[in-house]
Amino acid sequence: MAARRLGSAGRGGLIARPGYDPRTMPSPDASSADLPEHVRKLVTEIEREIGEDAPDGHVRDGRDRGETAGDAAEAELTRPIVGHGSLHTPHGPVEEAVREILVEIGEDPDRQGLKGTPDRVHRMYAELTAGYHVDPDRLVNGAVFDVEYSEMVVVKDIPFYSLCEHHLLPFFGTAAVAYIPRGKVIGLSKIPRIVEMYARRLQVQERMTQQIADFLNDRLGPQGVGVVIEANHLCAVMRGIRKPGTVMTTSAVLGLFRSRDRTRAEFFSHLERRSPFE
Ligand SMILES: [Zn+2]
Questions:
Q1: Ligand 1 is an ion; residues with CB less than 5 A from it
Q2: What positions carry a catalytic annotation?
Q3: Which of 34, 197, 273, 276 has the fewest CB atoms in 10 Å of its CB?
Q4: What CATH code is assigned to 4-23+143-272?
């Protein structure tokens, strides 16, 4: 049974808004067309619905992706990364740095199993941090609707994987996002994408929770927003600071979710209820 601990926010408490400032948020890279192909594809997948036209005019759908997934994955492994700045390869600064780490921990970076590791690590981190390149306007584009609905909308059990910025180790779990509209709703499928946009960055769980809440608040101007994230942190589990299986819970509540006990209680009761389909 997983032990739980409430994050600094506590129920109903508001986490300080560490560092959230739309002006300093990493802006979508003007040169995102120059991103390595595998990262650009990810960014596009987060920004757009499957089936929507991708920027290159290529229509993606599940079938298309299914047929070519194996080939594409194979191609990804062999295709050189093309990019700009520190993304240049082969033997760019990232690869050199990874080699140095391998040497430093007493490994031989030239032995067979490690030969491709600097390149793989570089590729992987570019993917795991692709969220920096997602354009929030493109993500939301066309999916905000005028609807006179003023009951709570809850999307829960949204899985995510992120990287703790203190150790560059994964933390992962689920997010629950709720809001009470004020004349505007957002397409349901966009909410997991918003989570993804913030998860694919170097993060601390508290900030990620707040960023998701702030984003919806800014875009929809709702009567209130609530976000709860539960996650396992490998930096804690693997390094033995906390007992394995410890789950950290953080919450961010705005508007009615903050000011009205009844609203908050309704939100938390949604989180306790199991899905009727289980
Ligand atoms: Zn950590």
A1: 164, 166-167, 235
A2: 164-167, 205, 233, 235
A3: 276
A4: 3.30.1130.10
